[in-house]
């Protein structure tokens, strides 16, 4: 196959270029824009049956006019005393302006505006300072979209503009926007900003490293041009998948960051592996055409195999339950396949057409008459002398090297195995973001849970929740929930202000209850008339932040309390469906689904990569060791990242761990990429040991691959490290962890742990016995190729 490919590239390069141009032209013509097809709505990505999905469905059925999935909270606070009449007048005018905005721009998805003037519930939106003599009031703006959806970002952006254009607040009145919708908006903006900064940082680092390694501008630009076209083609191809009938493919907004980073890292590596072998063959005295053909034939198989492990590893994410992960993995895998194809077709065509000019301002590698061809080829490899020393030392003292390396990595791996994931959205944002600032203000006057109440929704076909019996049964459950130490208020049809009925006085009279209270807590105008008065909601206000671990733990206990009550209370046993909505519920479901997917991926990715290794190398024991070393590197990288970011953590809030995406994507990408380098090394070991035997063959393989793999590792680490320039904490943590993991794999796992094991395995493998003596062949003498491969 690779001989035919070499013929095509060297004889009909114009045809290769033409095919690429036609393919890209078709994609450009028909592919939808990324902005129109990309999504980032967490609830729609959860599997059916999850509490937030059920809750959202019940909300739509029972309260079709109030289907709000997120909330923007406008905070007006005066720190030096109570709010004045001018302050309340300003709040009312601002609320009226938002109401006009709702009518004028219906596409924003604004559902409801609530302020202090609302009968019964309005006074609950005024709070006194917990410390000092200040006072604050809230305007609650309910939105259609979930907190992370693009529609929510657009709506909150519009609210910010409205406030900026509105008249100045009275002197001393502080104004800010927070709430789950504002948090999602700031996260979306940070993600969008991260795309541009990461892209520029990635390209800059790749160019810099290539120029330092090769010092030839054209040779540095060749991989850059190849992969840039691959990235553009990949993004068009991923968007085009949404057009395929039956596939129902979804494009995730943040996927483009991973496509850019992974493809620039891995795709550049593929080009460099090819260029390195091309330089070697030129130095051995081959002509340009013959050198390129030999490079394609010798390296092509290793490149396909190496890319195959990454593609299969990422492709395994298709079996995830969480749609965000399910579609992100295959999208990155598709981009890698396109990058591999470009590295094996476009890059060779450019090398062939540019010929010796690609090495300008230096002479092309060539053979000097009388010189040693092997030494000349080694001279073309970066840091060849260094890796020759490393190879010799590993061969001499493999046991000592192995123990020292394992001893250095093991403590960090132990820390990595014990790390806990963080699902808080506020910690993913920098402290200067508007939503974070607003959240801190709210905490000074209200329970933190006011930023995003958690709503329990019940459907009971046989119970009228507006009746006296319905209110009594609801109150039984509310009393149990109110006893939870992290719940500051429970609001329902029986206690609309969060107070027990006996403390409400005439508030439960029909005159007040029916027009103002019942419609909020009971579905009096459902989609289906048969559901009228049979769907009810209970709002829970946690003392802790909606995204905090304390809220997640409290929600688990709330579900247990509700489950126990529904199973023991005779009147409530008829509840046929229950769901929970709100930011806390969404984060809880996110935690549950990603935890399940993470464990599933541990097995599927590891098994998939191991099977590929065995098929390619046909050495099950060595393949098992290769997997083990990469997993060790993964755990060590995770542990080091935990220590670094815990040390760098600032602020009054305690350290709560690395973002959940770090451990998940670090495992999938590092296991796949780590085996990528191992395959390139082992393919050279197999090639060299046929000539020199296992020991010397391993040494030669390290010498010939050490420089190029370390160069590729630096590029890969640099591209991953560019994510540190992003504005989201999760991206910075993941970028650091991936860069560190690649460096550990490049400079410890691949050149030390793997070769040392190969040498030890060869030295202690059973030898044939002849006349009572162990037969030992001299290094370099191989009678039977099968013996060399043993």
What layout of secondary structure does this protein have?
Elements (H helix, E strand, L loop, with lengths): L1 H10 L1 H18 L3 H4 E2 L2 H4 L5 H12 L7 E9 L6 H20 L5 E5 L11 E3 L6 E9 L6 H16 L7 E6 L1 H35 L2 H24 L10 E2 L2 H29 L4 H28 L7 H32 L18 H7 L4 H13 L1 H20 L3 E2 L11 H10 L10 E6 L8 H15 L4 E5 L18 H12 L13 E8 L6 H20 L8 E5 L1 H35 L2 H29 L9 E2 H33 L1 H28 L7 H35 L5 E2 L2 E2 L10 H4 L2
Parallel strand pairs: 1-7, 8-13
Antiparallel strand pairs: 2-5, 2-6, 3-5, 4-5, 9-11, 9-12, 10-11, 14-15
Helix pairs in contact: 1-2, 1-11, 2-9, 2-12, 7-8, 8-9, 8-10, 8-23, 9-10, 9-12, 10-11, 10-12, 10-13, 10-23, 11-12, 11-20, 11-22, 14-23, 14-24, 15-21, 15-24, 19-20, 20-21, 20-22, 21-22, 21-24, 22-23, 22-24, 23-24
What does this entry look like structurally?
- The chain is of the alpha+beta class and 790 residues long.
- 62% of the residues lie in helices and 9% in strands.
- The protein is built from 25 helices and 15 strands.
- The strands form 5 sheets. Strands 2, 3, 4, 5 and 6 form a 5-stranded antiparallel β-sheet that branches. It has a 4-stranded antiparallel β-sheet with strand order 10-11-9-12, sandwiched between helices.
- Strand 14 (769-770) and strand 15 form a beta hairpin.
- Helix 11 packs across helix 20.
- The longest helix has 35 residues, at 180-214.
- The protein starts with a helix and ends with a helix.
- Residues 773-790 have low confidence and may be disordered.
